[in-house]
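Input.
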Amino acid sequence: MIETVRNWILCIIGTALICSAVTALTPEGTSKKAVRTVCGFASVIAVLAIAVDFNYADYSSYLSLYRVEADETISDALQKSSQKTRFIIEEECEAYILDKANNLGGGLDTVSVTAAWSEQGVWYPARVELTGDMASEAREQLAEEIIFELGIPKEKQIWSTDNET
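Output.
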């Protein structure tokens, strides 16, 4: 299929080059008008020539194959985009929690947020694992911030200290 289109384009280019050369070499007057008319017809024939040798069955199968490949490419791109979105949400939530912990006096070593896919078709922070030694008051305040700002309930907040591992 692509070979047919390539040959067609080469035919058009060749016709255009020959017509340009013949027109440039023809002296002014009625002979030049006749050459231009013949070149115009040759150009039209070159453009329409694809219809003579065109294999419509091959073209149809080529389009079907192209559509399948396009659908696969789109699906793959959407999946990669979704994974990047998930990664960004998890990373931003982790940075937010670490920042809040530092504002409350620190003591938090690691934060790991896990995002989940909602029924509405978006990623949301669903679970968090926190490691470090924080004062109980600061820890409680941070847990409330996580609930209020990120919507992660207390039962999905897994707290541990460095000694527990």
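The two ends are 63 Å apart (CA to CA).
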